[in-house]
Amino acid sequence: MSTGRKQTDSTPQNPTSKSAAKPKPASEIVGWPAWARGLVSLLLVWHLAAIFLAPFSQPPTSRLVAFLAQNPVVRAYTDPLYLNHGYSFFAPEPGPGHVIEYTLFDSTGNQLETSRFPSKREQWPRLNYHRFMMLADQLDAFPSEELREPRAKYMLTNYALQILREHPTADRAIARRLVHFMPTRADFLNGVALDDPKLWSEEYSVTQTRADLVQAEARSKQLPRSDSDPEPELITPGSQP
Amino acid sequence: MSQLWQWVRGYFSAACGAWNDFWFTAIDAATLSLIRICVGAMLLYTHFIWTFNLYAFFGPRGWLPMELVERDQEIFQNFAWSLFYHIESPALIWCVHIVALVVFVMLMMGLFSRVVSVLAAFLAIMYVVRVSPGAFFGLDKINCFLALYLTIGPCGARYSLDSLWRKRSGNTDEPRPSVSANLAIRLMQWHLAIIYLFSGLGKLQGQAWWTGEATWMSIANLEYQSLDVTFLAHYPALLDLLTHVTVFWELFYIVLIWNRWLRPWMLMIAVGMHGFIALCLGMMTFGIAMLIANLAFVSPRLVRALFDPVARRVSLALTDTGSVAPQSPTKKTGPTQ
To answer: What is the number of alpha carbons within 13 Å of residue A224 lying toward its C-beta?
Structure first.
């Protein structure tokens, strides 16, 4: 297997052979004139720098890299092309699971149902389930410590409103975000199950009524934030997995 | 002094030659064409799944209402833009969705590939920008960067309706090696290597990736779990090994993948690691998308050895020419080649 260069991709050579590493003179390269290669080379350097600096600039990072990657000139290129990301897959550590649990009540206060998402039973196929898992996971995936909780509650409020939209008979919804920790390997071997009740805890909870839903439909902005709030950090939403 | 000058000149001359050789050598577009089929299929499936909850995710109110998007745009000072920011009507959102699905089918089939690849990348970005942050994940990042690089090269040169059309029009010439195909493949390779590098560097910040517990923490997460492999708890050395191999493999991919002798081993580990994630951690689509990206390191010769016989049969069945038919005196080109 190789990258398939036309002139150099014949039978594998001895990797110690000098000829294997010897660069081919530019004159032998098929195709583009020098000016076109020069222009494209500049674009390549720009693009490679942009896609390298974008994940490098995800927190924690230095001021230099944050400036280089997150200044408006670079972001005018990386944001619209969806290149401004971290790639922290399961990093820095595989985190706990998150679930949104909601309870619905009718207008007389009777409990209608309690359900959860993501739900392997209700969201199928798996990619559909995964989108709902991301809704629960990314509720508080926000770089600013100070804005994290109000934003998480705002998002949870929106989830509760959406649940009311999808359940026309319900008058009130209580939505809770639960964290589901994993047992350690030792605990698991000592008999603690993966869904042991001790491994669950509640983080946020909101209650919304149908009257709130009617008001929300008419509102334009809702996130609790005042003029005294700190200036937003120059951080992109790419730090999520 | 003159010797030093000569050495400097020689160094830069050789470096420029290597740069030209790396980026501007014309290659066969077979690998790029195979990636086009896979990316088209993945984009189609990824976006078809949105069909189940289209308006709830892409409408102005729903799981991620526009008020939230506007607020995030202000806080993040984001330059990203989505068509869905401006569409409220359910009918219009459904129209865009149907058009997008048709575009992804056309990309997969290789019909009007050059134009369709641009449309596919544009639409894929439109979707994911609307649900970021909130409902996106790694799959979307991989889908978008692959779709973006498909726009650069002749991704419909082989294994496509475009090539069948060309043959049916009497042009039975083999597609010429292409510099832009090489550029597209090289960019995919570098982008993937950078992704692995920063994925590995990110893991170095976590203690569990040093202590070997990270693999256990991944398979013990019930929300991710699709296949129960918690019996591995009885084999701690194996869990430690899997953890360490993952970190080292990701960190050194950017160096070792270029070596022709190590490349097959690196790709085999990729298949093992992403296969494990796909089967056990419930991310089949993400695992497959990463493997599609790894195809960029498979040579066009190998791709042709595997897929040309199939393509020839299809071509013979549909055009009565195959790829060995006599050349027509009046050459016509396909719609997008």
So the answer is: 11
